[in-house]
Amino acid sequence: MFDCLNESIVGRAIKNGIIDFQAADIREYSKDKHQKCDDTPYGGGAGMVMTAQPIYDCIKAIDPDREYLRIYMSPKGERLTDGMCRELATHDKLLLLCGHYEGVDQRVLDLCIDREISIGDYVLSGGELAAMTVIDGTVRFVDGVLGSCESHEDESFSDGMLEYPQYTRPPEFMGLRVPEVLLNGNHKAIAKFRKEQSEAITRSRRPDLMPDGKGDDR
Ligand code: ADE
């Protein structure tokens, strides 16, 4: 599943030796003769729970000296934000534990995990896509990962707002013209136009991000 990290900006960062990534298969650490990694929940209920032993041994093998910030991907975690990605990028080593089924035995979380992160209010069938989201969202804040032409300073959330719309050549497509202000080279007017657009989009789509917290019908 993690092969897609070899593409695009993350893939380039790996090839350039700026970041390194390894996936571990928890099953390989199971002491069960059938390499079983899950069991029915104590107290009853649907589904299976991942057992503590293989996860515990896997984490100990990867991080014997507690050098990693250890994160469990879970819908119960703190919600991932742009600010959190920036903060995660300041850590040298991240370990992302991906759950499956109905979750993992709480004791291994209590013993081994520093933080729980969710990528949104929905339940995925496993933590892998969530982990890849954290990796992709975080790696771009690591020094040297984005080239000089790729900046995260003008993107959505960089100033707490959604990004203004972008246009490129040609100046007219299917009868739609690029807003005139972007063509005249007046940088002050362009900055004002973009700020207004950014505010309008944020107010309509994400009023919770506005300083006054109010939407279009304010
Ligand atoms: N695993 C399953 N659902 C998840 C979510 N929303 N965020 C993080 N990890 C998850």
Can you walk through the features of this model?
The chain is α/β, with parallel strands linked by helices. It is built from six helices and seven strands. The strands form three sheets. A three-stranded parallel beta sheet has the order 4-3-5, with helices on one face. The chain has a two-stranded antiparallel ribbon with strand order 1-2. Helix 2 packs parallel to helix 4. The mean pLDDT is 95. Bound molecules: adenine (ADE). The site of adenine has 12 residues, from strand 3. Adenine (ADE) binds next to strand 3.
Q: Which features does this protein show?
A:
3-stranded parallel β-sheet; Trp Operon Repressor, Chain A; Alpha/beta knot; about 220 residues; 7 strands; binds adenine; 6 helices; alpha/beta
Task: Provide the fold topology.
Elements: H1 8-15, E1 38-39, E2 49-50, H2 52-62, E3 69-79, H3 82-88, E4 94-98, H4 106-112, E5 115-118, H5 128-139, E6 172-173, E7 176-177, H6 187-205
Parallel strand pairs: 3-4, 3-5
Antiparallel strand pairs: 1-2, 6-7
The protein binds adenine (ADE).
